Amino acid sequence: MTVVGPRAGTPLLDAAEGLHEALPGHRVEIVGGRLLVTPPPDSGHARSLTRLTFALAPFQGHGTEVVQGVGLWLPTGDEDYAVPDLAVVEVGFGKHAVAFNCCAPEVFRMVVEITSSNRITDLTTKPQSYAAAAVPVYVVGDRRRREVVVFSDPRGGEYRSRAVYPSGERFLVPEVVRMGSDFPADPRSDGSDGTDGAGPPVELDVDDFLIVE
């Protein structure tokens, strides 16, 4: 994917930069040509991110890293970018900076959002944007509906797979997230389980996404 940075005359980016300076702790994004401002996370949101960071620890140090608040430059508009709550990225992602502290989308293996005031955007606009950027997996913790939605298989600007997991369930992180990583071999696996002998699949608890207080 060819990533193009902002062209001359960027009124939305200028406004975003002003808001970022005026509202410390707020998340400022431009998605689908719209300027979005999200207040600082509530306690439940913050606790969810902490739990998920620990749960995704197997992705730390095997060709990938788990990071919070790293911007993703989007191909959907001259000024579009998103700042996912959490992401699994390739090691060395900082070398792929595009503009406005955002990195090229190809270094992102998975992005995670926990719904807050911009819930509708997380569930409707962002799937289109992340699919257009060919991010392999997008996971949304919908705290209102008490479920997690996993989007995967981006093709033709949309995700071809959408799986929903209700509170109380667990789910496996799609194998594509660690594809190409140097995960240690799992001595218990001979590859017949579809993991090619890689480390054991990473399983996440839906309720870790849904903490409200």
UniProtKB/TrEMBL annotation:
Pfam families found in the cross-reference section: Uma2 (PF05685)
Keyword Chloroplast among UniProt keywords: no
The entry's keywords: Endonuclease, Hydrolase, Nuclease
Record-linked InterPro entries: Nuclease_put_TT1808, Restrct_endonuc-II-like, Uma2
Chain ranges of the Putative restriction endonuclease domain: 24-180
MF term (GO), any: endonuclease activity
SUPFAM superfamilies: Restriction endonuclease-like (SSF52980)
The keyword Thylakoid appears for this protein: no
Superkingdom of source: Bacteria
Coiled coil feature spans: none
Start and end residues of each stretch annotated as Disordered: 182-204
Protein name: Uma2 family endonuclease
Organism whose genome encodes this protein: Streptomyces alkaliphilus
Record lineage: Bacteria, Bacillati, Actinomycetota, Actinomycetes, Kitasatosporales
